[in-house]
Amino acid sequence: MKDPKNSTNNLLIQYYFVRGHSEEQEVETVVESENMIHGDILRLNYTESYSLLVQDTLDSLRFASTLNAKFVVKIDDDVYLDVCRMVWRLQTTSLPDMLYGGTLLYNSPADGIQGTSIISHEDFNDTTYPVYCNNPFYIMSKKVVLEFLNASKIIRSFKMEDAYLGVLAKYLGIIPTQLDGEGTLIRLWLLQLEIIWDDATFNETFEVGDSLSPERLFAINERYLKLETGFN
After folding, report:
1. Mean pLDDT calculated for residue range 201-230
2. Residue 219, φ and ψ in degrees, nearest 5
3. Which residue from 63, 144, 61 is spatially nearest to 101, judged by alpha carbons?
4. The pTM is what?
5. Are 78 and 59 in contact, with CB atoms under 8 Å apart?
């Protein structure tokens, strides 16, 4: 796409789906076929497992650290992202050089239980987690990616990958940036936004939702496609 700060420049956006291996051969065949055609899947060398989410995240960041990129974005597959609007905001909004931003969670209790996993006091022994970016979507500058990878060699990991990144940020003195809220960049957890939002509200943001069905993702995409924009 065109650089919104300099229309004579083109910006390269690289996309990768991160995927471990499956015990189902049918799934493996489909994924390998997709990757052979498009070359857009980062295959991890282990079987998909909730307990390996931190490893997934760190391996993804290691791969991203090899790319010539200014920002690295992590997004779940049930969240809608308008890439052009995101790039425009990143290029035209005042953001910290050491950016680690998203929807921030404060004082989340470290009670040792998250879904089916148990986080022991040996892994993390405080009563609450440091401020961290909620898992469905966050952005880091390349500099932060490199710092996180270095710190991960020192700081013991645990099974909550988003909270673990918050621990790394605190250790490094990196202050997480709130990008969610009124008049800012992203919105999470909103019901029926594809129906009740007006065009001006859509134009205020570039990322919406969490746990969205394919039908809602397509409906939101249709709303964005109909908007008048000043960038392509």
Report:
1. 83
2. -65, -40
3. 144
4. 0.83
5. no
